[in-house]
Amino acid sequence: DTEARRLQKKGKSDCRTRPLWALYRDVVPFQALPLDQPVHPFQLGDQVLVKKWRRDPLTPWWDGPHTVSLISQAAVKVLGSDKRTHHTRVKWFLNPNPETE
């Protein structure tokens, strides 16, 4: 990998490095993330909105705000729910009236 990068920086490419770069470009997005830290920015006590699985027409997609009570590698658990929610279904709650807290 380092030899291919060195040749690429110099503008040199040969029949051996082109397939390596094509493979590298296609594989890198699917590599597993390290397990030593969470893959989301949420912390305990954060106010979040949770995306609904099903909703009635003309109703909001997001439910909340909820308080984060537990975090794991890729999931968040909120107060009032016994289930964990994947971090892609959670977003920050931005209070429109911060002085009312």
UniProtKB/TrEMBL annotation:
This is Murine leukemia virus integrase C-terminal domain-containing protein. Pfam families: MLVIN_C. InterPro entries: MLVIN_C. Keywords: Endonuclease, Hydrolase, Nuclease, Nucleotidyltransferase, Transferase. The lineage of its organism: Eukaryota, Metazoa, Chordata, Craniata, Vertebrata. Residues 40-91 form the Murine leukemia virus integrase C-terminal domain. One of its GO terms (molecular function) is nucleotidyltransferase activity. The keyword Lyase does not apply.
